[in-house]
Write the structure tokens for this entry.
Amino acid sequence: MEIKIPKEIRRHKETIFFGLSTRQFVCSMLAVGTAVGVYFAAKSWLGKESASWLCLLAAAPVAIGGFFNYNDLTFEQFVWAWFKSQILFARPRVFRADNIYCQAIVREGLKDD
């Protein structure tokens, strides 16, 4: 038996079932439940093929929630950060460079006068 330990201890992920973490396993089960529920709800009025496509579309966001990781952010943290930056605090961001050398020359010129 070999246990892999990452060099950075904070990157350790405990697995519980099929090599999935608890978060991934729960989101996978929720995605399966969502797909089955949508299939049986939509099969009668959409048909089997269309209902199966609708299952994929409904279960995908739930499944992505368990496996998504961007800059050590979970899916919920990433969506909240995006929402804050794009909706709540949206404003034009202007880059203004400060030329320290030019400012020093101007200050020295003012001191000499």
Observations:
- Residues 9-112 form one domain.
- The two ends are 79 Å apart (CA to CA).
- The first helix runs from residue 22 to 46.
- The mean pLDDT is 84.
